[in-house]
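Me: I'm a chemist; would you kindly supply a protein sequence with its structure tokens?

Assistant:
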Amino acid sequence: MSKEQKGKRNQKESRDDMVGLINNLERDDDLKFNRRSFLKSAVGATVTLGVATLPFSVLALKDKEKDDNRKEIAKLADIPKDSAINFQYPSENEPAILVHTKDGELKAYNNKCTHLQCPVFYEKEESVLLCPCHRGFFSVDNGHPLAGPPQRELPLIDIQVENGVVYAVGRQIRHG
């Protein structure tokens, strides 16, 4: 660039392109689209979305309160000691087993072996839960594996007895 051209750049009335860069700035637009206004818009949008979804959150909480995990299994009189019945808990696709032990205790577990998900049966003679697929044995008292390939205990189902009716009220998936 020649000295003559450089000199024109510093002149206010120059037609040089470099000088023209600052002339295309709009002072009003700069005030509209700055960082502060962007943050105000972002906070406003967040508050608006939060308020808009509030009714759905309240409805979801109400439905959750209605969604009681309590499910009737059977009448206690229909389950003799040293026997077991199968039921579905917490959904219709989850098999479970309720064992009325010789001592009169009620124990409920998920009815899938923790090895390969085969059904588990109550073995009266030895008072154990048996997985016939690979001869896995579980304790009726706590659902822990006693022998065979299973390494993890059966998920425990919490039960309650009210007015002679046995209810499933929750499930504990344990690891250990």
